[in-house]
Design brief:
There is one protein chain. By secondary structure, the protein is mainly alpha-helical. 90% of the residues lie in helices and 0% in strands. The protein has 3 helices and no strands.
Length: 138
C-alpha cells in the first residue's frame, strides 16, 4: 500500500511540475509578445523622428541654397572689386563652399549614426526578460 501511495504522490508531483513548467512557458510567450510589441512601437517612434528630421533638413536646404549662392556671388564680386581675376574669385568662392558643404555633410552623417537609432529600451528590457526566464527555469 505504501508503494502505491508513493507512486500516486510522485505522479501528482510530476503533474504539478509539468503544470508549473507549462505556466512558465506560457508566461514567457506572453512576455516575448509584449516585448515585440514594445520593439515595434519604439522603432515606429524612431522612424517618425527620422522622417521629421529629414523633412526639416530638406526644407532648410531648399531655402538656404539660394542664400548661399547669393553670398558666394557677393564674395566673388568683392574679390573682383579688390582686383582679383573673375576666374580666381569664382574658384575661391567654390572652394569655400565645398569646404562648408563637406563639414555640414560630415556632421549630418554623424547625427544619423546607427548607435543613436537603436531601440535601447527594448534591448534593455529583453536582457532583463532573459535573466528572468533563466531564473524561472532554475
Amino acid at each position: 500500500m505504501s508503494i502505491e501511495r508513493d507512486i500516486k504522490t510522485s505522479q501528482g508531483e510530476f503533474r504539478a511540475i509539468s503544470t508549473l513548467l507549462g505556466d512558465a512557458l506560457s508566461q514567457f510567450a506572453k512576455l516575448f509578445q509584449n516585448e515585440m510589441d514594445l520593439a515595434k512601437a519604439e522603432l515606429g517612434e524612431k522612424l517618425q523622428k527620422i522622417g521629421g528630421a529629414l523633412g526639416l533638413i530638406v526644407g532648410g536646404a531648399a531655402l538656404v541654397i539660394p542664400a548661399i549662392i547669393m553670398a558666394l556671388f557677393a564674395l566673388s564680386a568683392a574679390l573682383i572689386s579688390a582686383g582679383w581675376s573673375p576666374a580666381v574669385s569664382y574658384l575661391t568662392s567654390a572652394i569655400i563652399a565645398g569646404v562648408i558643404a563637406a563639414v555640414l555633410f560630415a556632421i549630418g552623417v554623424n547625427r544619423l549614426d546607427a548607435r543613436q537609432l537603436t531601440p535601447r529600451e527594448t534591448i534593455s528590457q529583453l536582457e532583463k526578460d532573459k535573466d528572468t526566464v533563466k531564473g524561472m527555469v532554475r
